[in-house]
Structure formats: structure tokens, C-alpha cells
Amino acid sequence: LMRRLVLPSSKNLNLMIHGPFLYTVIFFFLSNFIYSITSLTEDSGMESGLKLNDGRTIPRLGLGVFRSQPGQETKQAVLWALQSGYRHIDTAAYYRNEEDVGAAIKQFTDASGVPRESIWVTTKLGFHEGPKDYSGTIRAFEVSLKKLRLEYIDLYLIHCPNDKRNRLDQWRALEDLQKAGKARSIGVSNYGAHHLEELKSASRTVPCINQIELSPYLTRGALVDYCSNHGIAVEAYSPLTKGHKLADEQLVLLAKKYSCTPAQ
Fold first, then answer.
1. 3-state DSSP call for residue 80?
2. Which of 95, 156, 226, 237 is catalytic?
3. pLDDT tens for each residue of the chain, 264 residues long
4. What secondary structure does DSSP assign to 192-233, as a single string?
5. Which of 30, 39, 90, 94 is the residue whose CA sits 20 to 30 A from 5?
6. What gap in Å lies between CA 139 and CA 17, rounded to an integer?
7. DSSP secondary-structure letter at 93?
8. Is 95 among the residues known to form the active site?
9. 3 state SS of 161
């Protein structure tokens, strides 16, 4: 599972972080942190949210399913999260578990009466199946939509900018999906400032989110500043460095000082 948490700060930028955590409760064995620095309310509970640059509000707490095995593992994880009050689920075509996320959401909404509209669902354009032009992007979106058993996606991201030949057409497809109401919010992942500048020169639509690797050991200040200055929320993956730095001497000392684990 992934857990996401939005925390306030004083600087004028938005930052969302996600990565693995260990918890005593079994279904919190992985977590996401969303760290936001603007447009935040004082409440940091399950019901609080972060306003994006398109005017929509994303729940601060969420569950991501990267590296969650397709099948019952993912389905049960999502179901547990929803039953616990989570209203934000993050998946991707590359994760190969969209069907399980969709099955869990349907089971939960059927049993609980909670409307689908109250659950924020993010998925991403796959990069693992080869290049995708405009039409290929539309088709890939429709496949994800079908697997998730949904009528629309709350947030659709281009997973990476590697397809240099097609990435502007991919963004144009996302814009049209948003205009059609099928993707309510749109953004990118793993984009550098030069990729974002390319988008800026070709489109008036500013991505609402850029998901990048970010941690205390990989701060990427210039890119974070760029996103902040252009109203783009930064969503960081692997903020815990995939566990590689949890034994860092200074981190361990700080954990002892504040009576918490290095991950916390």
C-alpha cells in the first residue's frame, strides 16, 4: 500500500511525496507522503484537500499501488484503504493492476453506498508498450478506463517524457480528454524543466502535477522551484530513497531525538 499525507509549510509551492513506510497495521506496509506548501487548510485529516491549478481539490491522503502485485493483493489493499477512510487511489497502466483497483472500488461503493464521485482516482499513460501518438494515447486511456470500470478518471498523467516524437501529441490528447470530461485533471510525471518549457511553448494548459523522484537526499531544488513558480504541484516518489538511507547516521540520530522511526 501507499499512504499520502499533505503537510503545510510557508513557502509558495505544492509538493506531494510518496514512498514506502513500515507501520504496525499490516496494510500500511508501504506509504505515500503528499507534502503541500500552498492552498492548504488547517485540517490535515482524511477530509482535507489540496486545490490544484485547475480549481479541483485532490484529497491530501491517498493510497498508491506501485509494486503492489496484480490480483488479490492489490484489490484487498485498496479495499482496506477505502474502508479505513481513504478517498484517493493512485495507479498506472505500467503497474498492471488497474483492474484490481477498479474491482475494489466497485465492491466498496456497492457495499457502502459511498458515491464513486467521492473517490479520487489517478492513473497514468503507459510507456512500456511502445510509442503512442495522439490516437494511441486516446486508445490507451480508454483501456485504462475500462479496466478501472469507471466513467471518468480524476487525474491522468503522462508517465514519462521519453517518447520525444509523440509527447506533445500525447499532451494534446490529454487536453481533449479533459475537455470531454473523461479526464477531469491532467498532468505529467518525470518531466524536467525543459520538458515543461516545451509544453508551455506548445500549449496554454499547465499541468496540475509533475511527479518526480524526490527525497531529502535528492532535493532537485531548481525543478521544484520551476514548478512552484508555474503553479504546478510536485508529486515525489521514493522520498524514503527505497530504504537505502534509513540507516543514515544523522537520520537515525534525529529519529532517536524525536522518538520516532527513521521512516517517520
1. helix
2. 95
3. 333 433 233 233 333 334 333 222 222 223 333 333 233 333 456 778 889 999 999 887 778 898 899 999 999 999 999 999 999 999 999 999 999 999 999 999 999 999 999 999 999 999 888 899 999 999 999 999 999 999 999 999 999 999 999 999 999 999 999 999 999 999 999 999 999 999 999 999 999 999 899 899 999 999 999 999 999 998 877 777 888 999 999 999 999 999 999 988
4. -HHHHHHHHHH-SPPPSEEEEE-BTTB--HHHHHHHHHTT-E
5. 94
6. 29
7. G
8. yes
9. coil
**Residue type at position 249:** E
Other beta carbons less than 10 A from residue 179's beta carbon: 10
Nearest to 4 by CA among 209, 256, 253, 167: 209
| Residues in CB range of 180: below 8 A, 6 or more apart | none
* pTM, entire model: 0.82
Alpha-carbon distance 198 to 179, whole Å?
21
DSSP 3-state assignment of 234?
Answer: strand
